[in-house]
């Protein structure tokens, strides 16, 4: 009896695995032509300065609306793009489009130019010509280098310190800013901040989520902010969904804030309207 059940179980498991592999391959095929078919688009999530609530920049997030499969989450298709190598074609397109769109944004109410923050996947770092791409995008768009921020994940950067050090050095020379995304999730964390030259860290939203309930998360967040500031590094908190979280982060001196409570990701036109609206309100 038990043996039978085990057998069935095994067979079921196998079929589920086949199905997952098939689905992945299918997604990969579909993703290959998705950009040219116009199924991919960029949205921008506003980033605010905590101190004065000023809109100071936005993060580009890729969206895929498949005609049959519907909306496919980035966590799924970015992974497919990364594993298959498709990210090598997709990444530069996102970077280029983001630089061109950001070039068109108006200044904020304080007269500052907004930055645009672009996610760079580990594979783009390892096998791509990131420095070349960044240079090309800046030149063709006319965007000032200081307005481009690149978000690299902590694990991708720390994983290969030699590469990281030389690459980050070169990136800095182009004038762009480098942020560590999802900071705190990799366990290397704070001690490595001294060795890798980054301009900012984004505290992962898993810490932000429990800020009000979990004293450990609050302690860690407070430590990250203090440590980063001691090293002259900017701190961004992502995934802020409630005012209580924002208030705690503000008290702790967190520099920048991003999350649904402040704004959902927006189409570029809506972002421009939001920048303009902020100007009108302050007049
Ligand atoms: P990420 O870079 O950490 O981006 C932040 C994610 O958190 C986004 O999810 C954003 O929509 C979501 N988010 C923002 N505020 C809140 C909030 O208050 N609550 C919650 N629960 N979530 C919030 P999204 O757009 O689904 O993207 C997921 C991940 O996919 C990104 O994580 C990033 O790693 C990757 N990704 C998205 N676009 C790109 C891209 O163009 N290139 C690369 N390489 N990766 C991308
Ligand atoms: Mg990011
Ligand atoms: Mg993140
Ligand atoms: Mg994340």
Automatic annotation (TrEMBL):
Q: EAL domain: from which residue to which, for each copy? A: 24-279
Q: Protein name, please?
A: DeoR faimly transcriptional regulator
Q: What is the lineage of its organism?
A: Bacteria, Pseudomonadati, Pseudomonadota, Gammaproteobacteria, Lysobacterales
């Amino acid at each position: 009896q038990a043996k039978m059940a085990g057998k069935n179980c095994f067979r079921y498991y196998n079929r589920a695995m086949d199905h997952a592999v098939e689905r992945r391959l299918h997604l990969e095929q579909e993703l290959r032509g998705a950009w040219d078919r116009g199924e991919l688009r960029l949205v921008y999530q506003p980033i605010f300065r905590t101190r004065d609530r000023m809109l100071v920049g936005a993060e580009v997030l890729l969206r895929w609306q498949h005609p049959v499969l519907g909306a496919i989450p980035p966590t799924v298709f970015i992974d497919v793009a990364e594993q298959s190598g498709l990210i090598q074609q997709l990444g530069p397109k996102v970077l280029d489009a983001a630089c061109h769109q950001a070039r068109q944004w108006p200044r904020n109410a304080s007269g500052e130019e907004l930055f645009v923050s672009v996610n760079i996947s580990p594979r783009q770092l390892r096998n791509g010509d990131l420095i070349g791409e960044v240079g090309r995008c800046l030149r063709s768009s006319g965007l000032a280098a200081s307005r481009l921020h690149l978000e690299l994940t902590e694990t991708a950067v720390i994983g290969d310190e030699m590469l990281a050090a030389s690459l980050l050095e070169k990136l800095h020379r182009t004038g762009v800013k480098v942020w560590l995304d999802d900071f705190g999730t990799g366990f290397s964390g704070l001690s490595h901040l001294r060795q890798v030259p980054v301009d900012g860290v984004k505290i992962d939203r898993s810490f932000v989520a429990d800020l009000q309930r979990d004293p450990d998360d609050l302690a860690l967040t407070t430590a990250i902010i203090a440590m980063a500031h001691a090293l002259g590094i900017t701190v961004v908190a992502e995934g802020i969904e409630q005012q209580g979280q924002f208030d705690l982060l503000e008290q702790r001196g967190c520099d920048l804030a991003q999350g649904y409570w402040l704004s959902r990701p927006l189409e570029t036109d809506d972002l421009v309207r939001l920048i303009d609206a902020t100007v009108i309100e302050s007049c």
